[in-house]
Design a protein that fits this description.
The protein is α+β, with helices and mostly antiparallel strands. It has one domain. It contains five helices and ten strands.
Length: about 220
């Protein structure tokens, strides 16, 4: 998953009148020791209600044909999930509401498991019969013509550019910086690695699962 902020573009550019701009009176304090390029802390590991859609806010096309290391061709679909609220207890709404989690769905099968594209469309209600009768990527894109609500499960994962693989899984396997908080940046055999929130599961939104948190909150 490639973590970056969504860019919003306008089809039309309006002229900007600097004389008419109303400057705020508030004073903004700047920390001179802060790292302007420090990566943003990922959302905590957990389950969330999210709006999922095709990620069209990048320079690269959202749907791409690629090849694996073994030379197998596959299709990759870039999507973005906007968190609406947490499902798990202990995660504050103010900490996660409106945050984005990015994912890449692929048609490659994973050691006897479904491809991530198939798991995604199954969560959206596609039946196995429909999958076998059609093309999973096309089915996914039809679902992604509009925003869809799903339950997502996320996990911190850190990629090593040196070892070219994920070398650290799970928020609690990163250095603790207080009760329930962890540092997402750490040194790993001399290399600085950074955790990102990775979607590990998609689930259909069922009323029963949504009511659990409402009743206990």
């Amino acid at each position: 998953m490639s973590n970056s902020n969504e860019r919003q573009t306008s089809a039309r550019s309006e002229p900007f009148d600097i004389e008419a701009f109303d400057y705020p009176d508030e004073v903004v304090e700047v920390d001179p020791k802060a790292d302007a390029f420090a990566p943003y802390r990922p959302v905590p590991d957990g389950r969330y209600l999210a709006q999922v859609k095709l990620n069209t806010c990048r320079d690269t096309p959202p749907v791409q044909k690629k090849k694996s290391k073994r030379g197998n061709s596959y299709t990759q679909v870039s999507i973005v999930a906007k968190i609406l609220r947490p499902i798990d207890h202990g995660i504050g709404l103010e900490d996660v509401h409106g945050r984005f989690v990015f994912d890449e769905l692929r048609t490659l099968t994973r050691r006897g498991r479904n491809s991530s594209v198939v798991d995604f469309i199954l969560a959206l209600g596609t039946t196995p019969k429909e999958i076998f009768a059609g093309k999973p990527t096309e089915i996914a894109l039809r679902h992604l013509n509009k925003e869809r609500e799903l339950l997502i499960t996320t996990e911190w994962q850190a990629w090593s550019k040196v070892q070219k693989k994920v070398v650290r899984y799970g928020m609690k396997n990163f250095p603790s910086v207080g009760v329930g908080r962890y540092n997402h940046v750490l040194k790993y055999y001399g290399e600085t690695i950074v955790a990102s929130a990775t979607v590990t599961k998609y689930e259909a939104v069922r009323k029963a699962s949504m009511n659990i948190r409402k009743e206990k909150s």
